[in-house]
Design brief:
Layout (H helix, E strand, L loop, with lengths): L5 H4 L2 H6 L4 E3 H5 L5 H7 L7 E4 L2 E3 L7 H12 L4 E3 H7 L13 E6 L10 E6 L6 E3 L2 E3 L2 H9 L5 H13 L5 H10 L6 H10 L6 H9 L8 E2 L3 E2 L5 E3 L3 E3 L4 E5 L8 H16 L3 E5 L1 H6 L1 H16 L13
Parallel strand pairs: 5-6, 13-14
Antiparallel strand pairs: 1-3, 2-3, 4-5, 7-8, 9-12, 10-11, 12-13
Length: 321
């Protein structure tokens, strides 16, 4: 009679040794399961499957995202950290901003020699960050996860989408992302560096497109981001663009673009001050700058005509105090 290991008498040990149904083959062998038995059970039609070298899933169904992440971390070993797009999602960024499936990207200490394989990219680094643990998964901080993601993408639209999402949704400052890019390898950083450099001194990323579009107008704005005051020297606002001679202002507004709801409330208060001062206001969604620049130009030209036909509001660029 063939002697069978502890796993046969106590099958519950298999699940106890696993996490999310994923287990190292070496842990199975510690339960006196032979390597041949493990191999046989992972053959096509068998009850298990091999996800990565030495990493077994204890069922034959399609693995879940959690199981794939668990397999990647087991493959990476101690101190492995999830980064890239998968980490960005776990930090709360939206799936819609992410590119098609890029697999898993893990950081490991530089002295570890573990090869990339299957759906897992292993990156040895001398700059291993302190992880942020979410639901027992160690994540690279969002700034690092974002830069790790974009420097591996060749599509500029995908790079821009992730960076915008990290800044809007994640609250990352363009300067912080640029600094992180500077600390690592320069490989793959040309596109994100160009985008971030263009955004770093702007109040919003959409203003970059607005400035370009404004130069196509018959009468471009006279000022950008200039603080305006009423006759008594009371602060009115700091519009994205101003035509001082006719009292026309242009704001690039979107609830989605603001980091917090409080920002949106301030926008409402600001617009009330504009109306009280008699200013003509054009508000444009960031997405419309990209998708309908001709329509935006037409709106601005029409608004300029309306503003020019009215008495100029009594506004000033500096406090009268």
């Amino acid at each position: 009679m063939t002697k069978r290991g502890r796993w046969a008498q106590h099958p519950e040990l298999l699940l106890e040794r696993s996490r999310n149904g994923v287990v190292r083959a070496s842990d199975l062998e510690s339960l006196e399961m032979s390597s041949r038995t493990i191999y046989t059970r992972c053959l096509p039609g068998g009850p298990w499957q091999r996800l990565l070298p030495g990493i077994i899933l204890l069922h034959s169904n399609e693995p879940t995202t959690e199981q794939l992440v668990t397999a990647g971390l087991l493959h990476g070993g101690a101190n492995a950290i999830l980064t890239g797009t998968a980490a960005c999602l776990r930090h709360g960024l939206r799936q819609a901003a992410m590119p098609p499936d890029t697999g898993l990207h893990l950081l490991i200490p530089h002295d570890r020699k573990i090869r990339s394989t299957g759906f897992v990219t292993m990156e040895r680094t001398i700059r291993l960050p302190s992880p942020i643990v979410r639901h027992e998964v160690p994540l690279a901080p969002l700034v690092r996860a974002t830069t790790d993601a974009v420097r591996r993408l060749g599509n500029a639209d995908h790079v821009e989408a992730i960076l915008i999402e990290a800044i809007q949704k994640g609250g990352c400052h363009p300067n912080a992302l640029l600094h992180e890019l500077d600390q690592g390898s320069l490989r793959g950083t040309a596109v994100p560096r160009r985008l971030l450099t263009g955004w770093v001194d702007l109040r919003s990323m959409a203003e970059a497109r607005a400035k370009t579009l404004g130069q196509r107008l018959p009468m471009p704005p006279s000022h950008w981001n200039a603080a305006i005051y009423d006759r008594q020297g009371r602060y009115i606002g700091r519009p994205d663009a101003l035509w001082e001679d006719v009292g026309l202002i242009w704001e690039i507004d979107s609830f989605e673009f603001h980091f917090r709801k409080a920002d949106y409330a301030r926008t409402i208060d600001r617009n009330t001050r504009y109306a009280a001062a008699g200013l003509v206001v054009v508000q444009t969604l960031p997405s419309r700058l990209r998708d309908d620049p001709g329509g935006v130009l037409a709106d601005l030209i029409a608004a300029h005509s309306v503003a020019a036909a009215r008495p100029r509001p009594d506004i000033h660029l500096a406090s009268a105090a």
